[in-house]
Every structure is written in C-alpha cells, then in structure tokens.
Amino acid sequence: MTRLTFLFVLFLSSLLVFAETSSFWTRIAPFQALFQTILPSKPAFPPVKHAGIILPSEVFYELGGVSYMTPTHLPITTLTVQQRWEARNVFSVLTAIPLPEKGKQVTDRQISSIVDEFVATDDVFALPWLETVLFTSTPTNTPSKLSQRAIDALISRGTRTLLVPPSVSLSIHNDTNSRLEIIRLAAPLPSGQHLRGPYLVRSSSSSSSYHPTVLDLYDVYRLYSDNYRTFILGMYPLNDGSGRFASVRQYDSRGYLQIPVPSRLREYKDGSVMGGARIGVKDNFHIAGLPTAAGNRAYGEMYGDRNETASTVRKVTDLGGVLVGKTKTSQFTTGASTSDETIDEQYPWSPRADGYQSCGASSSGSACAVAAYDWLDFALGSDTGGSMRVPGALTGVYANRPSFGSMSLDGIMPLSEPYDSVGFFARSPKLFAEYNDSSTQLERFPELPHKIIVDPSWIIQETNEAQALIGGFLTALSSQLDMPVFNIDLDSLLSAKGWDASFVETVMLDGMFKTITYHTWKSFGHEFLTRYRVENEGRWPMYDTQNNRWWTWAEEKGYQKEIEEFESRETEDAVVSQLASWVNDQLLGSNEKTCSDSIFIYDIGTGGLPSYRSKALNVPGQGIPTYSNHRNNTLTSSYLCPLAQCVDYTIPIGQVPYLSAVSKRIEMMPVTVSLVARKGCDFMLADFVEQLAEKKLIAEVKSGREAF
C-alpha cells in the first residue's frame, strides 16, 4: 500500500467514526433545508436490504419542530415520472391531494378548502409538508384542469415542486416555472390506490442512475411523547403480508418513550366506527412480531416475539383500527393499583386531578393513556375482578366488561379463564356504544328496560357533592327516559338465599381466588417457573407480592396435587352457578322485548374521594385504596359480574372537588356509575348508553387534568 493510499484510508476511517457521533448530525442539520432533504438520525434498528440498497428500517426526523418517523423497509406505492428527480436515495416531504372526481377546473378556493381540512382534521399534517404536492387521480377520473390561481395558492403555502397526473391540463402563466417545478407522472395511479395526506418520497431506480424516474412513497408517523409513562413500546404494521408488527423504542430528549401515530387522512374501512381509530393494547394481548411481557421482564425475555395476534386485536384491525403501542399492566394482570405494588415497570401516571392518583388495577396503562392523550382514541384491556371498570372509574373514562364468552380470549394471557373478559376504554360515549355494537355477536332487542334498580349501600357517595351529583343523575334518568328507580337491599336478598357475609367470603370469594391461582399456575405459571429455574441454576424470577404468594402456595402444595384438589371442588362451583342464575334470572330478570328486565346501577369508584398512587396517602376519610370494599357490602361490588357473568359498563357522569394531600389545593375527581344488565344483553346496554348521550345525560370527556 502506498503512503498516499494509506493516508486516504485513514482519512475515510476518521470520517466514519466522526459521522457516528451525534455532534456530526447536529452540525449538518442546518443544511437540511438547503438541500431540501430529510436526513435520518442514526438508525435504531439494523439495516435491511431494499432494491439492492442498504437502508435503515426507520428514519427519525423533525419537520417544523415536530418529531416524525417513517418505516423505509417497504414503500407503500411507486410512481414513475417523465423528468429528472433529485439525487437518488434522498428523501423529500410530500402531500398527496386527490383531484375532484368530476372533470372540472381546480380553483384556489378548492385548494384552500382542502388544506384547511387537512390542518383541522389531522395532527400529523402541517404546512411544511406542502413543499412537494402530488395531485392524485385514477384512470376513471375525467381530465381536470389546474388554474393559475390554484397553483398560486400552493406556492403561497410553500409548494416548490408539483407532481401532476397525465390527465391534468395546466392553465399557467409563463413565469410559473421559475417559481415552481412541475413534473409529469408517466401514468396515473392504479385503480383503487388512494393517496391522501403527508408522505416521504425518494427516487429509487431508473434506466440511468443519473436521471432516476422511479419514485417510492413511504408512510409517515408523528411521534408523541408518552409523558405519563403509560406505554411500554410503540408499534407499526410491517404491511408486508405477514400480519406482523415492528416495535418502536424511540425516546425524546427528556427520556420519554415516543409513540408513532399515523395520519388521520388515510382511507380505512368505510363506515366503520374503528376506521382510522388509534388504539393502545394492554401487554397481555399477543401481537405477531412483538413480545408479550405481561408486566414481567423475565417472562418477556424468555418467550420473545410472538407469532400470532389475539383474535380480539385482529377484529379491531379488520374494522379499520390502527394499533400504535402496547400499554403497561401489572405483573400477569393480577391487579396492582399503586406504585408500591409494581416491580419491573414503573406504575403509570394518571393525568387527572393532582397527577398522583391511582389508575387502578391491571389495565391501568390503557385507562391512563386514554385519559391522558387526545391523540389516542381507544385502548384494549382485560377484566377479571374489576381491571376494566375500576380504572375507568378512577380516570373518568368509559369502560366495559362484556358478558362472559361474548368476546374471544384467544391469544390473550389468561389470569383465570372462568372470569376473564376483554374490554376497551374510550372518551366518547357514541364511539364507546358503537364499538360495543360491532364487537360482539349477540341478539338485538327492540326496546330498553322500563326500570332501574339500585342498592343505596352500593351507591352512597363518600362526599356530599358526589351524592348530589349521582342523585341528580338518577332523577334525570328516571324523568327523561321514563324509567322509575326502585331501591333494593342486596345484603338482605343474599342472606335470604343463605349467602351471608361469612359464606360469601369463605366459599364464593375464596373459591374465586383459588380458581385464579389454579388457572394462572396451570396455563403458564408452572411451565414458566420450571423453565426459568432450569435456565438460571434453580433461581426464581422476581415476582410482585400477589404472584409470589399465589405461586409459592401452589409450589408448596405440589403441581399435580393442586390440580386434583381444584378439579374435585364441587360445592364452590355449584354455589357460584346458583348465584349467576339468581342474578340474571331474578335480580335483573328476563324480558323478550328488552333482554334484561331491569338495569342495576351502582358505583364501583371512590364516591368522589381520591385514590392516591402511594398507599401511605390513602388514610381514612382522605383517600380510598382500590379494591378496599370501603362500603362493607356482603359482596364486593367489582365481583358481582365476574361471578354472575353479566355485562357491566362504567360511565363518567361528572366531577367533584376535593382537597389534595399532594398539591394542597382543591382538585377535581371524576365520578362514575356502573350499569349492569343480564348476561347477553350487551347490545341493549350499548343502546342505553347512546340514549343517555342523546339526552345529554352523559357526554364526551376531555383528556388531561379534568374530565369535564
């Protein structure tokens, strides 16, 4: 090797090392606009092959002060242009604008209207994306004409390059080409190809490497910071035909995970309530290509990425929903409700009130995310003994526990198969009711029930303000929907059946918890613990208090002995079956026109008092621990429908003030009620929620500190 060659190689090596530093990217950032390119940050994933070129899987960048991400493993479509494009492999921003279906002249007023609509409806789009504009048409479009005023409207908004289909004619002044580069497409978009909103574009290949004519378009995701730490990862679909997803673990400068959300301008399934809805998914649902940790780091690392997606999740995406990330859960969904009960993942933060409230139970990540972020529409969760309805009550969002068996549990890590159910959170009562309609396959009924039943001891509020609020709600409900309210005494009714407090505690609830222990141990606990100990020299993994107590007990009894003892339990199962029949057939009743003869209303929440994320602050009279049965009912309210298999919705009705032990000032706490109907009456209860919304008895809640 000559001395000159050696020095040249040394120079290149030094340059590559320098380029790997963050300062290199910082120093060249000011030149991005000059070259009209978007330079990717250092790739977060190993590069992949694409069209013979090594590219990163994603590029992360900023535009107009907003963070974005674009997957680059596969373009969503390819365009062919008749003229030269910029240098190969360089990204540019682009906005696709559909032409009118009828062959008319496109005016400046139409351009302004379209851009205004994009800005108003889409948080991903912004005016800097108009630097390059693609007018889209299909072979079925009648030729359109672009007026000079329409082009001027784009130029005034920053457009510098215009891509025009061959069917579009131009009516422009001679000086337009000096202000705007106009490039013709060689062919219209294929029929059925709908492009709308922001994309990244770059040239990929052509007959000449110096004059590329093939353009690749890539999807765009805005990155939102998870300031309340409700997610464990972001995600996006690979869209390669495999049905798999890729995880995104990108962080902002403050260390918050960033969640990718797609443009709301994309076309999804027409007429579907879930069309384009952004959805978080609790981390006990399997999603192909992603790990399921269920709140336990050792479990997630041991089993790695999943090959299947849960049936409920597939149904959501089939309806047009868009998955954006996995939300936090307590270990193996056992119901942790405070920061004191979490081990591997920090307990999520609630946006409500003083910011130090509990999100309640194992679906806390999903509930807090919906309460926190207006860029998230729904979140999936699960409920065994209250893990949907309690978080819904504490965060003031809509939540449901559907009738047992009405939604598939396939592909979901079980806690206890006889009691598990799938649910979702939403801020809008209309969307909440509509999705309930589309998610289950149950019988419809023509009328609503004609009466409401309440047990005052299940609904007495802990503050005067909350008591007045719920009393006013019941009065308005009775008046506007012509549904009289009848009081009952559940404790007396249960005692009359021989189910007093002692019996319920020792037979029903003890049996329920033994059932949960048995099913977690049999379905995955025993296999996981055995494998972990083999691979780690006999060591146990780290569990939270609840799982450690359950599984230590199961281990001490012996795996086979526990199975034999559990499967010989007949008395407990018979009593639970009797309770379910009594609740559905006698308490709620059956009606051929209304499904459930009545609706039972109770409060699963805190009655207007706070429930702090730190147990030490939940002192009597000032804070209520989650799942505390603070009203001393014979049967804890959250266990009624798990035992009876009935449908149970939590709906927010208002908020009341309290003096915060944290902020030392008056804050607002959400107040909710829960609606219970006979098993199988989910459609009817969804219709009831819609009626409440139409009568303005309930409303869409806000994200952030206050729900209303």
Automatic annotation (TrEMBL):
Signal peptide range: 1-19
Domain Scytalone dehydratase-like protein Arp1 N-terminal: 76-209
Ranges of residues in domain Amidase: 269-428
Claim: Signal is one of the keywords in the record: yes
Name of the protein in question: Amidase signature domain-containing protein
Domain of life: Eukaryota
Swiss-Prot/TrEMBL keywords: Signal
Pfam families noted in UniProt: Amidase (PF01425), DUF8016 (PF26053)
